[in-house]
Amino acid sequence: MTVTDHLLSIAEVAERVGVSTHTLRYYEREGLLLRPVGRASSTHRRYTDADVGWLRFLTKLRLTAMPIARIKEYAALARSGDDTEEARLELLLRHRMSVVAQLDEMTKSLAAIDYKIAGYRERTETR
Amino acid sequence: MTVTDHLLSIAEVAERVGVSTHTLRYYEREGLLLRPVGRASSTHRRYTDADVGWLRFLTKLRLTAMPIARIKEYAALARSGDDTEEARLELLLRHRMSVVAQLDEMTKSLAAIDYKIAGYRERTETR
DNA sequence: ATAGGACTTCGAGTGCGCTCGAAGTCAAAA
DNA sequence: TTTTGACTTCGAGCGCACTCGAAGTCCTAT
Question: Does residue B5 sit within a domain?
């Protein structure tokens, strides 16, 4: 918390991170955040830049199909201190394998789709 | 239907296509197939090579996150004859855009994950 | 001071894509 | 011929990740 911290409302964070305010509250309920979100006057949430940074990373994990439960594990490790760094690294490395596999499958599927498209193109343009 | 056709049971198709027999029946119920699956003795399904080919392509559409409903549209077009080829081409082209976008987002996410991994590596290996 | 809108919690509802189970039928091997 | 196990239909159930709505509270601008 330095002087340069912008504390953001939930709506501002939703816009910056690209999810709904409902989803932000859901993630918090599920224990996916690294620490309790600050509150203005003990009710309205106030997010730090660090919170936003983590949420942005979280959305990348989701985008690469990491289940909520796995992200929860990762967040729990991160909350448990520095001696869980190795475990976190291993978790990310395992996830990395899955992402590479997904990219590979998608790329192969794209090739099949392109092949089909080429077929239609031939028959459509020769008309 | 040539002499060289291997008619396959649902279990054999499930194995070849990489989905469960339950899923195969579900796809059929949902109207995702191009034509009625043949039957042995009017009960047990018998799939042709063409059926398997379509199912393989169908799984690639699913793998690239095309919703069941869109696949249903595509199959309906394909069933409606040759004059829907242009419409099918457009559908596939639109889907292609989405696949490319997904690949791009995934690749960017992978970069973020790799960046995080590199950070852990530094701190873990310098110990 | 007051109005209006953004925020709060909490539980319930939704949509998608399967996945399962029951109850029964069929067919290939011994 | 009998048995075993793969097949059939049908409707219901499930898991995931949100998404929504109700009912109430708080902040900001006028």
Answer: no
Phi-psi region of B44 (alpha: psi -120 to 50; beta: other; left: phi over 0): beta
Instruction: Work out if A11's Cβ lies within 7 angstroms of strand C.
Output: yes
Instruction: Examine residue A1 and state whether it is found in any structural domain, yes or no.
Output: no
Tell me how many domains chain A contains: 1
Domain presence at residue B98: yes
- Say yes or no: Cβ of A44 under 7 A from any atom of strand C: yes
Q: Whose C1' is closest to the CA of A45: which nucleotide?
A: C7
Q: What is the CATH number of the domain that holds B61?
A: 1.10.1660.10
Q: What is the pLDDT of residues B94-117, one digit of tens each?
A: 999 999 999 999 999 999 999 999
Contacts of A17 (CB under 8 A, 6+ apart): A24, A52, A55, A56, A59
Q: Which of A106, A107, A122 to mutate to test the interface with B (most CBs of B within 10 A)?
A: A106
| Cβ-Cβ contacts under 8 Å for A118 (sequence gap 6 or more) | none
- Domain housing B29: 10-125
Q: pLDDT tens across B21-79, in order?
A: 999 999 999 999 999 999 987 789 999 999 999 999 999 999 999 999 999 999 999 99
A contacts of B100 (beta carbons < 8 Å): 110
